[in-house]
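User: I'm putting together a teaching handout on how sequence relates to shape, and I'd like one worked example. Could you take Mandelate racemase from Vulcanisaeta souniana JCM 11219, show the sequence you're using, and then write out its predicted structure as tokens right after it?

Assistant: Happy to. First the sequence, then the structure tokens directly below it.
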Amino acid sequence: MLRITDVKAFTVQSNFEWGFIRIYAGDLYGTGETAGSPLAINNVIPYVRKLLIGEDALKRNRILEKLKYAFSYSGTTVYFIISAIDIALHDLIGKYLNIPVWRLIGGDRDEVRVYVDAHASKSMEIVDAALTEVFPDWIKQYGDKTRFETERMSTLTEPMVGRISTQQWNKDYTPENYAERAREIVNEGFTAVKFDLDIPTPYLKDYNSRSGQLSLKDIDYLTSIVKAVREAVGDEIDLMFDLHWKFNINTAAKICKALEPYRPRWIEDPTSAFSSLTLNMDEINLVTQKCCVPIATGENLFTYYQFKDLLKTGISIWTPDLTKAGGITEGVKISELASLFDIEISPHNIASPIGAMAAAHAMSVANTFGVLEWHAHDLPFWNDIVKPKRRIIDRGFIRLTDEPGLGIDLDMDAMKKIWSDFEI
């Protein structure tokens, strides 16, 4: 028996808010990560602690079902917490048995291909759980080492809501900058890169318009960006473009048609129908019928049950986020379902190294795995906050080792240097 003795949680503000849950069994512990906000974690963790202390960590499924029942009135938010607990249990059990998680779950892939999410060219968003831009203290430590508009942020007089760091077109959003950024990433050894295309253009007067429409001039401008990127990196590099639920069906179809000659690997979340808040299978069907390039979605879906509903559509690429969809357990189930229907699974990942490694371990068993997202390419401390010290992502791959559990652990001393108020 591996009796759980304590459960703790802590959060830090990185480019996104990272939430961690640590499960203790005597001197051993496992660490998991959630995409949930600090408020959700802090409110729920006292109840989780009461439910978990005394349980046998080896009976992972029993624990997960107990949590699902206990929080059955809480809606899907509980899966943010369950995701972290599931990852922490896998890490703990792997350490207890002295085997890596990828072997624990029967994986046969010891390296996982990674793509860089390059944002909107030069801009890296730093947002809290409400997608409101923030200016964390660590920015002052790293200065020019991170691609972030520190001068602009230091003079902000009011918070800006949304991913785009400015609501008006500027020189960041040019074909030349996108192409330069793509070349930089490919020169580092990556064979896949994704960019945001839900951006201001020189012709778009109201970026925040809810109409979901673009003029032909706007679409031509976005197409010029994609053309420049493709010409910069050649035909062997996979290119993906994210529309972040921004457009209506007709505009999404026009964008897809315009981009078809440049052979994107996928277009991601083109309309609001792909949001978990407005998941509309009929509209998704219309989008996939009208669009002539592969469509990807799934980062806001929970458990394999919601992905099962996607089988009714023409979606050919699933992008679950395992720090919210249910952790490694649900990641494996989703990948098995995808495999049955020959659907590519390429997880969304805006996590710390803990969440990224959890996704990599889960994908070790995925027959139809494509490529794993990395949203923290520009964070100067991403490798520094874990031990043992090594490059977690090297020339476009995460290599899974024989270290027990997730194979890495948070370096608390390093974290305290970055976040002065950090504590557990």
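A couple of points you could highlight for students: The domain at 6-104 is CATH 3.30.390.10 (Enolase-like; domain 1). The longest helix spans residues 78-97.
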